[in-house]
Amino acid sequence: MFSGIVEEAAQVVALKADQGNLDITMKCSFVNELKIDQSVAHNGVCLTVVNLTDDTYTVTAIQETLDRSNLGLLKVADKVNLERSMLINGRLDGHIVQGHVDQTAVCTNVREADGSWYYTFEYAFDKAMAQQGYMTVEKGSVCVNGVSLTVCSSQQNSFEVAIIPYTHDNTNFCQIEKGTVVNLEFDIVGKYISKMMLFK
Asked: Which of 44, 9, 60 lies closest to 183 in space, CA to CA?
């Protein structure tokens, strides 16, 4: 379980295809605190640490993960948003994030607004899935590339988020531009409520 509060935007140092899987090797500041079998969110995708060196760690993404997320598009030197799993006795500064990406979206617009930025994302809309909570709502929560954000301008198949300078500079939002593919995880609370309403 995660909160959507990114600890670090770290660099990919190696990528290795292994049949249908992809081994992703990262270099970050907290490598020496990691353990084999630990969970770390990568652009919002929960992956398990499978190998450690003095200054890098490796995780493996299976084909299902590559099909549903933007991890298959990674290149060496790309920045990836990282977050270790939540401490049960810690503050929930973002929102409840499972690390299970629902689908990808494409950035369709970036505009600067007096030192902050507004990003618009468009995703494939499915009515049946939307009825089960796979959608955004005005002022609701959404996770974009592992970042917990508040939705503004929610539309049927798109939404906008406002990014403050700190988030822009300390996550990979600084690399997102028109056409960039991002990972989405819709709010789990909204999914449960929507599913219960279907059986009312």
From this structure: 44
